[in-house]
Design goal:
Blueprint lengths: L2 H9 L3 E2 L11 H12 L8 E5 L18 E6 L1 H12 L27
Parallel strand pairs: 1-3
Antiparallel strand pairs: 2-3
């Protein structure tokens, strides 16, 4: 799936984060490492999602429970996806509130000339 489509799915709450997931804890150095890996076209791992009609409790209740059909619950990869969302969309994903983000990577600078 394209990154832009994936991030749009987060933005529209089509991909949601279960309450049992740990909070966003990545430091700026880890976010920079992710960007560096993307820049060099290194593998960054995969995401694991669970499609269900009956999702568990969702962080910040960022879900439309009136909607029918399958919900896509993010089980693995939320640190990477959260960083990508914040860097590309310049916003915090709907499954978090601003006070939930201690290490906001949106002030990250990456030099594409030398990859640092």
């Amino acid at each position: 799936m394209q990154v832009s489509r994936l991030l749009d799915r987060v933005e529209s709450n089509a991909i949601v984060l279960p309450e049992f997931q740990r909070e966003f804890v990545w430091k700026e150095s880890q976010a920079k490492g992710l960007v560096n890996s993307l820049f060099h076209e290194y593998p960054i791992g995969s995401l694991l999602t669970w499609e269900t009609e009956r999702p568990p409790e969702i962080k910040n209740d960022a879900i439309d429970r009136e909607r029918h059909g399958l919900f896509e619950v993010l089980l693995d990869g939320q640190q990477r996806l959260t960083v990508l969302y914040m860097l590309v969309k310049n916003d915090i994903p709907p499954y978090y509130d601003p006070q939930d983000i201690e290490n906001d990577p949106r002030n990250l600078y990456f030099n594409v000339s030398n990859g640092s």
